[in-house]
Design a protein that fits this description.
Layout (H helix, E strand, L loop, with lengths): L10 H50 L34 E3 L2 E15 L5 E16 L6 E12 L12 E7 L5 E2 L3 E6 L5 E6 L5 E4 L5 E10 L5 E2 L3 E3 L6 E3 L2 E5 L7 E8 L2 E4 L5 H6 L1 E7 L12 E4 H4 L9 E8 L2 E7 L18 E9 L1 E8 L4 E8 L11 E5 L2 E2 L2 E8 L7 E8 L7 E6 L14 E2 L5 E6 L1
Parallel strand pairs: 5-15, 16-21, 21-29, 22-30
Antiparallel strand pairs: 1-2, 2-3, 3-4, 5-6, 5-9, 7-8, 7-10, 10-14, 11-15, 12-13, 17-18, 17-19, 19-20, 20-21, 22-23, 23-27, 24-25, 24-28, 26-27, 28-30
C-alpha cells in the first residue's frame, strides 16, 4: 500500500509567488491610477457641463430688454448678468464643488441678421455663451471643460435701433484666418473716455448697435487666452520711450447707410530677452526696431520703434513681422545676435501656437569699413575700426584679400589710431607682393576669441567680422 505525504509550500516557492504578485501589481498600479484620474476628470467635465447648462437656462428666464446683458459700464448689450458669477450668486467666482474650483465666463452678444428686404439688422437677436474652466487633475493646468451657448430672440413686437451699427471682426491664428473669441473690444471717444465695449463671439465678431454719430477710437484690449497683442496701427512718439498703438479712428454716421466694418488682427506677443548686462548699458543704450511691412494700399503708418534696451524687454512685439534693428550707446553701435550660435539675428520670431514667443538674444559688436595706405618703404598701413572699444587686440588673427587672392604678410605692428581710444587701430605690415588694387578685404579669423571683447563682455558678431578697406 502506497503511503501518501501532504507537503506544504517551500520557502523558495513562497518568495517566488510574492515576487510574481509584486510584478503583477506594478503593472496594474499605473492602470489603476489612470482609472482613478480619468474618473475624476470625467466627474469634473460633467459638473462643468451641468454648470454651463444651468447658467444658460437661467439666462433664458431674464427679461430680454432690461436684464439680458452684462452688468458692466459701457457694455453692449447692457443687463444684470455678472460675467464671472454663477446665476449671479455672490461668492461664486470661483464656484467650488467638492473641493474643485470652477471658473465661469458668460458672454452675451448682439447677433446680426437680415430683414425680409435684405437690410442689415444689428440687434435682431441676442446670443449667449458660457465657458467653464477648472484645473486638470493630471497636469494641474487650467483647462476649458465646457462651452455652451444659445440664441435668444425677443418675443413680440419691438422697435429696432435707428443707429448705424459698427461691426468689428478680430482674427488670429498662424495665417489670421481664425476668428478670435472673447476678445475685449473697446470704443472710446476722442477724449479717450470709454463709450462702449463688447466681446467677440466664436466667429471673432462683435457688433455695437447704439453709437451716436461721432468719431471713435476703437481697439482690441485683451482676450481670455492670456497675454495678447494686436497688429500695430501706429505709435506714440514719446522721446526715447516710443510705444506702438493698436487703435483706429472710425466715423460712425456720415455717409454710411448699412454698417461700418473694421478688422483687427491679434496674437500672442513676442518678447526679446536680454540677460547678464549691466543696468548702465540697458538703461542708456537706444534700440531702433524697424518692421519690414507693406501697409494696405492707401494707408501709411510710421511703425519704427525707438526704445531703451531696458524698456524693450517688456514690450509686446508683433511676431508676424521681420525687423531691422540698430543699437547705439553714445558713439558705439551694437547688434542683436542669436544666443547659441552668435550669428546676427535675422529679425524674425518663431510662431508658437497658443503660447508666447520668447527670443533670447545677446549683444555683439562689428567691424567698420576703413582705409589703407601704401607707404613708400613697401609696407602698407591698414586703418581698421570697430563699432565699440575692443580689448585684447594683440590676440587678433586676420586675413587680407586682394580680390579673391589672399595676401601674405609679415612684420605686423598694431597701434591705436588715436591715443586712449580703443575702437580704431593702425596695422602696419609688409606684404609679399605689391598691392595694385584700390580695395582690400579685411577678415578677422578668430572672431569667437574670448579675448576680443569690449568692457561689457560682448564678442565680435560672426556676420560682421569682415570689412572693406579703400585706398587712401
Amino acid at each position: 500500500m502506497k503511503k501518501q505525504h501532504n507537503r506544504g509550500f517551500t520557502l523558495i516557492e513562497i518568495i517566488v509567488s510574492i515576487a510574481l504578485l509584486a510584478i503583477i501589481a506594478l503593472f496594474l498600479l499605473p492602470m489603476s491610477m489612470y482609472g482613478i484620474q480619468f474618473s475624476r476628470w470625467n466627474g469634473i467635465k460633467l459638473t462643468a457641463m451641468n454648470l454651463a447648462y444651468s447658467q444658460v437656462e437661467w439666462l433664458r428666464t431674464l427679461d430680454y430688454n432690461d436684464e439680458l446683458g452684462l452688468n458692466s459700464i459701457g457694455y453692449s448689450p447692457k443687463g444684470i448678468v455678472e460675467e464671472k458669477l454663477y446665476l449671479n450668486e455672490p461668492g461664486s467666482d470661483p464656484k467650488t464643488i467638492q473641493g474643485i474650483e470652477y471658473k465661469l465666463l458668460t458672454s452675451i452678444y448682439w447677433e446680426s441678421a437680415e430683414s425680409y428686404n435684405g437690410d442689415f439688422v444689428a440687434n435682431a437677436i441676442k446670443k449667449a455663451d458660457v465657458t467653464v474652466k477648472a484645473r486638470d487633475p493630471i497636469s494641474g493646468k487650467e483647462k476649458t471643460y465646457a462651452v455652451t451657448g444659445t440664441l435668444i430672440a425677443f418675443e413680440g413686437e419691438r422697435s429696432l435701433t435707428s443707429f448705424i451699427p459698427l461691426k468689428i471682426r478680430v482674427l488670429t491664428g498662424s495665417d489670421f484666418s481664425e476668428g478670435a473669441k472673447n476678445v475685449k473690444v473697446i470704443v472710446n471717444n476722442q477724449s479717450n473716455t470709454m463709450v462702449s465695449w463688447g466681446r467677440t463671439d466664436e466667429k471673432g465678431e462683435v457688433v455695437f448697435t447704439d453709437l451716436a454719430n461721432a468719431v471713435y477710437k476703437v481697439f482690441p484690449d485683451s482676450w481670455e487666452e492670456g497675454d495678447m497683442t494686436a497688429r500695430p496701427t501706429g505709435k506714440k512718439t514719446n522721446a526715447g520711450k516710443e510705444e506702438w498703438i493698436y487703435e483706429v479712428l472710425l466715423e460712425v454716421g456720415g455717409s454710411a447707410d448699412n454698417s461700418i466694418d473694421q478688422t483687427f488682427y491679434v496674437d500672442y506677443p513676442a518678447y526679446i530677452i536680454l540677460t547678464g548686462y549691466a543696468d548702465t548699458l540697458l538703461n542708456s543704450a537706444y534700440c531702433s526696431l524697424n518692421p519690414i511691412y507693406d501697409p494696405p494700399e492707401g494707408q501709411e503708418a510710421d511703425l519704427d520703434l525707438g526704445s531703451s534696451l531696458k524698456d524693450l524687454s517688456s514690450k509686446k512685439i508683433w511676431r508676424e513681422w521681420i525687423y531691422e534693428h540698430k543699437i547705439s550707446f553714445g558713439e558705439d553701435e551694437y547688434f542683436f545676435v542669436e544666443k547659441d550660435s552668435g550669428n546676427l539675428w535675422n529679425g524674425s520670431f518663431e510662431y508658437k501656437k497658443g503660447a508666447v514667443t520668447k527670443k533670447e538674444l545677446k549683444l555683439a559688436y562689428g567691424l567698420k569699413d576703413g582705409n589703407f595706405i601704401k607707404n613708400g618703404d613697401g609696407t602698407i598701413t591698414l586703418e581698421v575700426g570697430f563699432t565699440t572699444s575692443v580689448e585684447g587686440i594683440d590676440t587678433m588673427m586676420f586675413s587680407i584679400y586682394q580680390g579673391d587672392d589672399e595676401v601674405d604678410y609679415s612684420d605686423v605692428a598694431i597701434t591705436q589710431a588715436v591715443s586712449g581710444q580703443y575702437n580704431k587701430y593702425l596695422i602696419n605690415l609688409k606684404t609679399a607682393k605689391n598691392i595694385t588694387s584700390d580695395t582690400l578685404s579685411f577678415v578677422i579669423d578668430n572672431k569667437e576669441a574670448d579675448t576680443l571683447v569690449n568692457e561689457y563682455g560682448m564678442k565680435l558678431v560672426q556676420d560682421r567680422n569682415y570689412c572693406r578697406l579703400s585706398v587712401k
